[in-house]
Amino acid sequence: MSKTVYLNISQITEVHHKEIQLKDVATVYSDDSAVTNKCSALRIKTIHLDRDKRYVESALDVIKKITEMDPTITVNNVGEVDFIIDYHRPKSPNWAWEWIKTIFVCIICFCGASFAIMTFNNDVSVTDVFSEIYRIIMGKESTGFTILEVSYSIGLALGIVGFFNHFAKFKINTDPTPLEVEMRLYEDNVSKTLIQNDGRKEQDIDVS
C-alpha cells in the first residue's frame, strides 16, 4: 500500500550538530503518524569537517533516501528543490564579546546617521532657510535657536521612528520594518547565489 509523505524543505537552516535528520531541515507530514516519525528521524547528511560551513543539498537526494528506506512511500515535495544546511560548531555564547560588537555597531550607526543628517542640512542650507522664514514671519533676525529648529528636530526623530516602525522593543504596527525587509532580501539573495554557484561549479561554469 502506497503512503504519501509531504515535505516542506526550508531554503536555509542553521544547525549545530553533525548528524542531520530530515526534521532539522523540513516539515514532514503524512496521514500515518508512524511514517511521519520514521521519515522525520531519517539521517540525510553527516558533516565530517569540524568548521563552520554551508552545504548545498538537493531535495532529490532526500527523496531518494526516503524511497530507499521504504519503497512504498510516495514523496510530494512542496518546499525548496535545492536547500542549504548552514553548519555552525556548537559553542557557548561569549556575552562580553556580543555586547562589545553591539555597542560598536550602535556607535557606528549613530555617528554615520548624524554625519548624514548634518551633511544633508548643510547641502540644502536648512539653517539659511529657517533664518529667512523666521525673518519674514517675525520681522527680525533669527538667533539660531527658535521654534523652527526645535520643531524640525522633534519631527526628524518622530519621522525616523515612524519610517522604521520600531522603537526599542515596541513596534507601531505588525508590518515588518524596512530593516527586516532588507535583511530578508539579503538572506534570500545570499542563499540563491550559493545555490546557483554550486550548480555552475558542477558544470565547470564559474564567474569567480
From TrEMBL:
InterPro entries, sorted: SporV_AA (IPR021997), SporV_AA_N_sf (IPR038548)
Protein name as it appears in the record: Stage V sporulation protein AA
This protein's UniProt keywords: Membrane, Transmembrane, Transmembrane helix
Domain Stage V sporulation protein AA: 3-89
Organism ancestry: Bacteria, Bacillati, Bacillota, Clostridia, Lachnospirales
Ranges that cross the membrane: 99-120, 150-168
Keyword Transmembrane helix: yes
Entry annotated with the keyword Cytoplasm: no
Pfam families on file: SporV_AA
